[in-house]
Amino acid sequence: MGGVRTNGLNQTDHNVLLSLVEWVEGEEAPGVIVGTDDKGQERKHCLWPTSKSVWDGTKWDCIKA
Q: pTM for this one?
């Protein structure tokens, strides 16, 4: 995925707003958006309906639906 990538906080896959801007302006839909909770744990939110988020016991990952 292209887009704005200046540091960890401005990566499009970690920032919903930047992902939407890239989608609208660059016509590139995000394949995954990574969310972080208040404890710093990350979860991949995958492109639905072609894939889904699955917990494997240690981390969240995307698998084909």
A: 0.62
Report yes or no on 44 lying in a domain: yes
pLDDT tens-digit profile of 37-48? 888 888 888 888
Q: In Å, how far are 37, 53, 55, 62, 63 from 22, measured between CA atoms?
A: 23, 22, 28, 21, 23
Cα distance between the two ends of the chain: 21
The answer to whether residue 2 is domain-embedded is no
* 8-27 mean pLDDT: 81
- Determine the Cα–Cα distance for residues 40 and 58; give it in Å rounded to an integer: 14
Range of the domain at 32: 8-64
Is 54 contained in some domain?
A: yes
